[in-house]
Amino acid sequence: MSKLPSAPIYTSEVYLMACKQFDRAADAINLPESIRDRVKHPRRAVVVSLPIKRDDGSVQVFEGYRVQHNFATGPGKGGIRFHPDVTLGEVAALAMWMSWKTALAGLPYGGAKGGVIVDPSRLSAGELERLSRRYMQELIPFVGPHVDVPAPDLGTNETMMGWMADTWSNHLGRFDPAIITGKPLALGGSQGRREATGAGVAYLVSRYLEDLGVPLGEATVAIQGFGNVGGEAARALARRGARIIAISDHTGGYHNARGIDVDKALACVAANRTLADFDGGDAIDNERLLALDCTVLIPAALERVITPENAPRLRCRILAEAANGPTTFAADRWLEENRPDLEIIPDVLCNAGGVIVSYFEWIQNLENYYWTRDEVLEKLFRQLEQAREAVERQRARFKFSRRLAAQTLGIQRVAEAKQARGLFP
């Protein structure tokens, strides 16, 4: 078995979890020792200091990261998160998962990820713009349309991507929208990009419910994390006929067995930035939400929320991982051994809709030719279905769990690309 990386800079629970997943997948496909560490270890990590002037005239220095895991299959691709708990190890794990995700989806990208240690809710709009621009300015030597193409993630949005695109373009001397995806439509963003991840989650949930013979109109759904991804998944599933019975964010959760009014909840978030004071259900904490009796449970917030302690309390039929790494390695093994009835849609498949439509946006920017929303979503669902079918074939062929099937497909494709390119002296 390949050793865990010795580099202490990445040490974190989430990175060790990603490494354990890799080791298990590499063992399952007998990945040669000569290629394992090359596939596993990040190619590059950039750490930057980000001084900005606050509105009161003071200067504060923030810390930011960009980890580029793999370039063998194309330019790096991955989001930028602004969150107070960001660590270099977390960003490295997310970059690794992006490598498997883009490969599984058949995209010509490697994996990358970025982050800044900051609570964006504590910054004014002007301070947030200065921080966004400074972050991109520091990354200019390391990113580009054919080098590494960032995108929004937790705590960032299309407005911030627009500021970053403008910063990079000012350095270039001309506007190049292909530097970043998830931008406003006015700057070359793609129709359907904002809802892409949530719409993809809803599509895959619908397909797996079909496989189980459960009509959408009879399905109940609980969503932990009501940000962009969770909110859009709720909207799409409600429109397809499912009943959303619980939602939550970092301020708390709400349960309504008769069904949450999703449009009302989205309006609350749009007005207040959180679900605080939402009056469409009874208060419920996140642990109780995870244990609700429901057809579909969607963790759509942060990593490592399904643990060995709460895994035995799950009462869902489908666990759809809209977040990255929401199930710990130990919890995943427990579920695999004790809940054979539970259908898990693993993160590298479940939330791939965002990077797929980011790829579409990048293509449209390079060609300067833009598609309609219907065209984008049709292409998205077709690509997700191809990835889903590949996972199910891998699962049936090797008797793997769905997670192992998805990860082995992604890892094998990256390994094949590295072997085909050879080792530069």
Describe it.
- This protein has 425 residues and is an alpha/beta fold.
- Among the domains are: 44-174, Rossmann fold (3-Layer(aba) Sandwich), CATH 3.40.50.10860; 196-345, Rossmann fold (3-Layer(aba) Sandwich), CATH 3.40.50.720.
- The chain is 45% helix and 16% strand.
- It has 14 helices and twelve strands.
- The chain has helices at 13-28, 33-40, 88-104, 125-139, 158-172, 196-212, 228-239, 262-272, 286-290, 329-338, 347-350, 353-367, 373-398, 402-421; strands at 44-53, 59-68, 76-83, 110-117, 148-152, 220-224, 243-249, 252-255, 282-284, 296-299, 318-320, 343-345.
- It has a seven-stranded mixed sheet.
- α3 links the parallel β3 (76-83) and β4 (110-117).
- α1 (13-28) packs across α14 (402-421) and α4 (125-139) crosses α5 (158-172).
- The radius of gyration is 21 Å and the shape is globular.
Task: Spell out the key features of this protein.
14 helices, single chain, Rossmann fold, 7-stranded mixed β-sheet, 425 residues, 12 strands, alpha/beta, 5-stranded mixed β-sheet, 16% strand, disordered N terminus
